[in-house]
Fold these 3 entries.
Entry 1:
Amino acid sequence: MANPRRKLIFNIYMGFYCSAIMANICICSQFSTSSIDPFNKDPGAFPVATNGEPFPWNELRLPRVVVPLHYDLLVHPNLTSLDFVGSEKIEVSVRDATQFIILHSKDLEIMNVILQSEEDLRYRKPGKRLNVLSYPAHQQIALLVPEALMADLRYSVAIDFQANLANGFQGFYKSTYRTHGGKTRIIAVTDFEPTEARMAFPCFDEPSFKANFSIKIRRESGHIALSNMPKVKTIELEEGLLEDHFETTVKMSTYLVAYIVCDFNSVSGTTSSGVKVSIYASPEKWSQTHYALEASLKLLDFYENYFDINYPLPKLDLIAIPDFESGAMENWGLITYKETSLLFDTKTSSVSDQLWVTKTIAHELAHQWFGNLVTMEWWNDIWLNEGFATYMELVSVNATYPELQSDDAFSDVCFTVIKKDSLNSSRPISNQAETPTQIAEMFDSVSYNKGACILNMLKDFLNEEKFRKGIIHYLKTFSYGNAKNDDLWNSLSNNCLGDFTSGEFCYSDSKMTSNTLAFREESAELKEMMATWTLQKGIPLVVITREGRSLRLQQERFLSGVSKEDPEWRALQERYLWHIPLTYTTSSSNVIHRHVLKSRTGNELISQVGVSILKLNMF
Ligand code: BES
Ligand code: ZN
């Protein structure tokens, strides 16, 4: 280099992914009408139920004194009158004595509520009818119990309810399609994430209230019913009605429950581990389902092997829904897709259609582990679902369909979110979200793309093998439970200091004693580094200046729309600092050097004796 003070300026490469972001920008703009938000009410106001009585709970989040264990749910949609009736029995466990049970319910008419104690159930006593209060501003109902429920006991709550099939694309809704003959057909579909399960049945609709679900669906003989689990039996009722009973689910969050009544056809295959995979579409689009079957069989095999954890259900259905708001939804065992995200017509579809279908399938299948098996504790960390699913698209599609060159698009995805993240209006990856509107707004390019990009950066920093072992450790440790950011950082530094009790990547006790300090330090450093990427908004710009035989490293917040001459620029820089993992190689050897840039001031120097070429971001 002729000029010893020549500046090398580059944005930190995080690795990206693009087409999903298009979809998410759409979602985001739909949800961003937050000007009239019934949840932003006066914090001092006392809640009053619809009947004028005081409502006993004043918070958006449910109390944790009563937790659901099992839902027995029966739903009967009427596709002619476009409504449904339902009944459920929720088995709950009471942690502390209480006089009320608070749960979610939105736009449901509650007809009858009966409480039975364990003793009532044992001696087949009828139970007590409960009064119900409704507080629509929080989408909650309160079940008032005449005598306090006792701590450490279980109860059963039976609720009868009914509602119209929703008109939009959320909750339990009506979807229609037209046949080639011009006839309109109606089907009934669920779409619950993030907070719409409460539109279909009263429930504890928060991701950490995991429970088992036994679902029964009534239908007419011209239809089929699908749900998360395989059907165990069909019972004939009077007037030709049929009732399908589905196997009980594994422990899962309410937003992943799904059921559909339709007249669709399917193709099926079996993975190497014996999971039955089926692709469903309306009869006239059935011929476009074959590519999705091939891709999902390949991708499910890939993930089972990559995560070293088998897909835990006996079947997986993927279904193309004619009216579907988002690109797809990862309901456990019954993934719903927009038709264009699943169907592939060998005569008319393009290679870019194939790439989109493959990536969408890869994304939703990744959620069966990241999201379904291990779920974020709360919506503020939805990036643990969406960032991972987006990152895994890159890994799995590269491995199963290298000819699609999906990795080419990844840097584009990073650059797309850098654009947004360089505005002061951006937000941290983990962000407080309480109301349904705020929660819906979390499904944006920051959660999806920046999430995926920082995971890709971390993979390069730790190396692929360690990263993979770390995420396997995370998935095994928190299976059927919930996790937060720190749980991920602990698993990635493999320190085994948390609740972890077994697993092939955990060190033995003797090794732990000698290495505990090192693990703690490694974990603390990783946490500190990743906090700079997840808890503050924005993105750094690294400026590297050659100074004689050294390189001076500096970082600043990368801002678009504010020039350095603007007095505001300095104010916007303050307090922003990242721990930036850098890799570089020089013309003097093939060795890849690593350095974590932690300061802003430019005091960090890398000594480079007599090298003519320096390459950064090597991996
Ligand atoms: N979990 C989401 C679906 C979703 C999106 C629910 C927004 C609630 C709000 C699903 O996994 C998803 O990310 N779908 C994407 C398509 C995917 C290929 C990136 C979508 O719908 O845009
Ligand atoms: Zn997703």
Note: The CA atoms of residues 477 and 500 lie 6 Å apart.
Entry 2:
Amino acid sequence: MPVTIATLGFPRIGPRRELKFALERYWSGKSSAETLEDEARALRAGAWSRQRSLGVDHVPSNDFSLYDHVLDMSAVLGAVPQAYRAVGTPLETYFAMARGRGAVIEACAGHSHAHGGDLPAQEMTKWFDTNYHYVVPRLSPGQTFELTSTKPVDAFLEAKALGVTTRPVLVGPVSYLKLGKATQDGLDPLSLLDGVLPVYAELLRRLAAAGAESVQLDEPCLVLDLTNVERAALRRAYGVLADAAPGLKIMLTTYFGGLGPNLSTAVTLPVSGLHLDLVRAPGQLADALAQAPADLTLSLGVVDGRNIWRANLSNLLQRLEPAAAERRGLILAPSCSLLHTPLDLAQESALDPDVRGWLAFAAQKVEELDVLRRGLNEGRSAVRAELEASDAAVASRRSSPKIHDPAVQARVHAVTPRMARREGDFSERRAAQAARLNLPAYPTTTIGSFPQTQGVRKARAAHDKRALSDADYDAFLRAETLDAVRWQEEIGLDVLVHGEFERNDMVQYFGERLSGFAFTQNAWVQSYGSRCVRPPIIFGDISRPAPMTVGWWAYAQSLTDLPMKGMLTGPVTILQWSFVRDDISRSQTCRQIALALRDEVVDLEAAGAKIIQVDEAALREGLPLQRADWPVYLGWAIGCFRLAVSGVRDETQIHTHMCYSDFNDIIEAIAAMDADVISIETARSQMELLEAFSGGGYPNEIGPGVYDIHAPRTPTVEEMVELLRKAGERLAPDQLWVNPDCGLKTRKWEEVRPALVNMVTAARRLREPAA
Ligand code: GLN
Ligand code: ZN
């Protein structure tokens, strides 16, 4: 049987983000549901025909989604809370779940929330360790399920009508339930398995009746730590599904890691194929070959679906030849769905040609799979030219002076543990800083950014297009900064920020000023719904040719006698929100970023900054999927943060900010960061989340957010006083700072002004001696 190729899923948003614009037109009432459906149909047809012409044998369907594939599955299973059903048409119900109804959706780095309106959006969270967000299924005790949408069948028939027999993709039942959130404490989502299985069974029968020969059931939960009960649930589920439609082949699909102890379960499930991620876990190929029954088709995820580098095809071919000789039924695929990669390198005309030569986006990855397929089916000689080209790219990348900077490497080698430690311990630093800063009790500050108004965005766009000169843009930004500083003084904030008006994005701004980073024009990746990101590409050793923020900081400080915070994005966050090179370890790249930032921190101090904040918004989301891997990650991640901030004297105060509040399981690592002050998100949870920091477990100072910046409403003085009183019950009053939950860039000045005035009033009230 010849080797074939699959994609597991293809980018949905279209070559020019057509889906984004179609959705936004529909949501704003500028186009009809019919128009949206037509536009979506055209995108699906485009993806199918592109994959067909690239030679994909197993073209997926139902991988497309108008918002999110997990939400689609909820719609299929009838897992739709009553309130949403009443909204209107199925499409209106669907978007009400995704976005809320009459509600305002707010996004900040890493998450989004809906507020107000009559129906809130369903919660969203990150899909495993990706930057893609899914809509979390709500599961309640005794919940019933029924087939309420035939989207997967419809999509299959739509492709069939175009002459493409596809392999429908479904989120598997066990992963679906495990991704859900119980509405009631103590509910085990898997207790609902018997409720969902008949619906899955019905769906498989309908797909078979429509002419499907195989389906792809995604069970990425297999790469997580599973209990015996969960493994038994998988056996039960696939027993039922195998019987449901006996002629239909099931490709059980795993990704984002190795199966480890779950492999023996996976290879014995009654399915016809198993997909393995051999990029994250190359070692499991040998185990799978040894353990899998001879009739189990293996789908090998050999090109990286999570990154943008060209594969080393000669190496891969060499690894695959024995497997191909030994097994019937081999499929080659990316490690995971190509949803997580940009679509086509052909759209990047402005990239450095060397860097471009090292990259492969979704379309190029399929071409790589095609070369491997031909190499296995027809022999190496059939693909000699392609292998030579791949070898040449590998060699050029390996030796390019654009990547390898001996000075950076020498510096990384010379890092000592001492460099990641402040001079004095916290109590010494605290005394030195208090003497120098002379701040009142409950000092007030903000997280960094002020509203990125239309005016700011317009000026930036004009400057990018060279319609606004450097000098005019600079003058504009100075005026914005001046206004912000004056206003902060006026309302009586204690520690000021410059407002970040000059920053397009908290990672991109730094990437553009560091060497080793490249930026694309069209390499968009879906984050959720209509939101897309264009992550920077870290291709080489990282260094800082010149100070990145000192000029703006110094200008802002020159306007006031109050302390102006230096404001930087931390090394882990820069790493986490970029495409990272794969020729050295992530920890090494992170260390390079940390050293570059260390120089910036030291330069800020030398310029006179008394307080420097280093944001680590993405520290938590970098946690590995398997707990056993947490300590290693936290070890280097925290080490890199400390390396970045420890070059300063004791009297210089280091702040960090994290825009989430879930610290219970990593509180020791957070404490180990040893930031003098940390600001976190707590307003919405009524300070409950301070649990982790209470009980003397966290010695340093904390600013628990008292203003929920994700909501358009103005918090009252009383509310904020109450929140701070609550915080004061768990923490020493002299540990507390007063600040919002996160940066204010997504808000309007009309909202920010009264909220911060109230916040300052709340802090002053707490300073008054108790009556
Ligand atoms: N300093 C950044 C800001 O205020 C922090 C943003 C974030 O953590 N997401 O916008
Ligand atoms: Zn934040």
Note: Residues 108-109, 447-449, 500, 506, 567, 615, 617, 657, 659, 742-743, 745 surround glutamine (ligand 1) (CB under 6 Å).
Entry 3:
Amino acid sequence: MDTSLSQTKAKSSGDEVQEALRIWGRRPLSGNVRISGAKNSALVLMAGALLCPEQCRLRNVPALADINRMGQVLEALGVKLQRRGDALDIDASTLTTSKAPYELVSQLRASFFVIGSLVARLGSARVPLPGGCAIGARPVDLHVRGLQALGAEVRIEHGIVYADIKGSGGKLKGAKIYLDYPSVGATETLMMAATLAEGETIIENAAQEPEVADLANFCRAMGAKIRGAGTNTIIIVGVPRLHTTDYSIIPDRIETGTFLVAGAITGSEISLSPVIPEHLTPVIAKLREIGSEIIFEEPNRLRIIPGELQATDIATLPYPGFPTDMQAQFMTLLSLSEGNSVVSETVFENRMGHVPELVRMGADVRIKGENAIIRGVPMLSGAPVSGTDLRASAALVLAGLAADGETLVKGLHHLDRGYENLEGKLRKLGAKVERVTGNW
Ligand code: EPZ
């Protein structure tokens, strides 16, 4: 895997040198920001490429630490990868093992999604449990139960998930699967597993996120028979083999939402492209509700014209509800909105790590259970803060853009996982941001 992309290794605390973003706040932004390919599509499409015995090409693949990590997982399975600019050639013609390496899977939850492709392609998979992270326990019971419904024998021993197709013939069998929760990952794992199963699989209460539909479109481009992706019922009719394709990944709706908030929180008119507006319906609706004007400009550009920030309430929900991956960023915006707001995080059990850091910057936020009560304040003040997860770090960068004075956002290994060249894109819009090293 070409590792020329900047990889910020996770630094342990203590006297080791760390990277941080130094941000000087209250500078207006202007211009257009280019949106990268969707991280959460690229990661799962890389897992989907394991289904194909011929080389495939993915385009619009963002340069992110997580993409590099997923590439290392695939290479450990025998896949050959070649980066060519924003394209990634994936040759899974000769897989050498069905065992995904513990040290890599434990660093990247999304790599667990290879389990569906491995079982479908090889008849067996040995994938370490991804384990929890800052935002929650992140169980995989829905993935496991779905694979069992498809005819795999699944057991968990010493932190490894062993999945093997029962009996001879080595094929999964189509089944009707109801997901207790519309899990994005479980929907994607089971859709991939079902593409090569015998017969028809129906996934009910499926996740409807755009990244699920993107995976389905990629698999269909390889010859899979899938319909209904993007709705709560997905039907897959197994095929014996997939074939090569050249596929372009959708733009990242969460990066788009993050930059829309950057415009709103700094009172700046900016434009963003490429964008698929319908992927952002709940975010655009809430931005309009709190006073921003959002204009769609042909063919794929959004423009935000900010207004006086008003309070509102947010509840994160599975798509098409308000995305949990935008909760931290939007809370930052509401911390400066006139009036009282309530933010309810219903998807993950521990996704409020940004709150104490926002409070250190002068925000008035109190957590009660899954709800955060926010009283808008006129101004945030710059301070040294640390991101606890990817979106919390993004929220703190947004806070720094709006705050009075200088903010130092530590924990960049989180940020580099999910945002391609964030500081470069912000600088291009006129922000005063620089990446610095030190041992804070
Ligand atoms: C995907 O994670 C995304 N990651 C997450 O983005 C995103 O926040 C999440 O979907 C929700 O939209 C990738 O696509 C790589 P889930 P995933 O399974 O698939 C519970 C980011 O910031 N659950 O929909 O892991 C789970 O505990 C990341 O880009 C089970 O109980 O999310 C959670 O409460 C963060 N059992 C809820 O479902 C299971 O087997 C939603 O999880 C699986 C999930």
Note: Confidence is low (pLDDT under 50) at residues 1-13.
